[in-house]
Amino acid sequence: MVTIADLNADDLQTLRNKVLGDYEAFRARGLQIDMTRGKPSPEQLDLANGMLALPGNGDHFSEAGEDARNYGGLQGLPEVRSLFSSIMGAPADRIVVGDNSSLALMHDCLVWSLFKGVSNEIEPWSQQSGTPAFICPVPGYDRHFAICEEYGIRMLPVPLTGHGPDMDMVEELAADPDVKGMWCVPKYSNPSGEVYSTEVLERLASMRTGAPDFRLFWDNAYAVHHLTVHRHEIANILDLCEQAGNPDRAFVFASTSKVTLAGAGLALFASSAVNVKWYLARAGKRTIGPDKLNQIRHVRFLKNIDGLHQHMEAHRALIAPKFNTVIEALEKRLAGTGVANWTKPEGGYFICVDAMEGTAKHVVDLARQAGVVLTPAGATSPYGRDPHDRTLRLAPTYPSLQEVRLASEGIALCILLAALEKHCTALAHNP
Ligand code: PMP
């Protein structure tokens, strides 16, 4: 097949008119489909309906006999910490269970590092002479970037390679003492879906950092969110950091937001013993203790790690067909045209499309006019600015399979139409 770049002016115009006609027909259907955020669908939430009746009347005591209705238990119940130990890559005594949002824990860790410092021996980031900066793999998670923006942390974009960030660039940037941290979504990354390689993990754990108080914000949000039978595993970042002589480098986060209930899950933190002590000292000023009834509810419902993996299989059965549908629609309309590349993720919540350079905003606009709402173009870059204006994040989990099919056909059309219009305009200016 010839790519659209190979077409002569007449053929290009003819194709553009045809695709425009298809787009108009699509728009005339008057659809209203939201593909903006990686939210679980109602059917996925239904999988955890059994939790709504838990822990049940009278069942409010932990294994140790602690009354979960009362205050206290800042670190979380030991049986809950044990349940998540293999996911967090740390023994139960180096895990903290928070309330429902891991993003809130990341926010807290960043704010405490800014205002209290990462230890007693070192000044808070905000009181040191330079402006603190974070390394931000791109495309990345917009809410990570929003936290940095909120607190005036400079963001330093680094491209992802398909198996983690470009480590030569990361090492160069990390040598600067003002660079205090780095966002990482190491497995089924949001939105590229990539899994960081062992080599990348080893280099992150062992690299020289100019700042002695540098921290990896290790957001393992999709640790158990597989889309195929292959359950990808990554090396243990806490162990690698310890082996490399940097035992306190990584703050590890995860949650059950996309395991059980997105608004009523459990958020988890794990790190070195020193960092857990630091965390608890700060957290103890913020709360008297977490929601332990929800913790008991989770243990009763998931039971053990096998129960958790089984539950994730049920999610996979619901959402993998949606991902396949998007990929089929993109392939059908765009394969061989040379206008876009897209990921085929084996886990996580997103498909990432690189449309033709300079067209992503136009694609989002065309889709919106046709009733399909996409994540704003640029959202996957710091400050919402995609220098290439090409990356689109598709979130297929929430709409129904039928809606996902329709929306993806429309999105593929918009990507093609935007590229054709760009080519036609370029030809008109430069015949
Ligand atoms: N991290 C990443 C990478 C995410 O994609 C999301 C959800 N979209 C979150 C964190 C939010 O997690 P939580 O619900 O635990 O706050």
Automatic annotation (TrEMBL):
Coiled coil: none annotated. Signal peptide: none annotated. The keyword Transferase applies. One of its GO terms (molecular function) is L-aspartate:2-oxoglutarate aminotransferase activity. Keywords: Aminotransferase, Transferase. It comes from the Bacteria. PANTHER family: AMINOTRANSFERASE, PUTATIVE-RELATED, ASPARTATE AMINOTRANSFERASE. This is Aminotransferase.
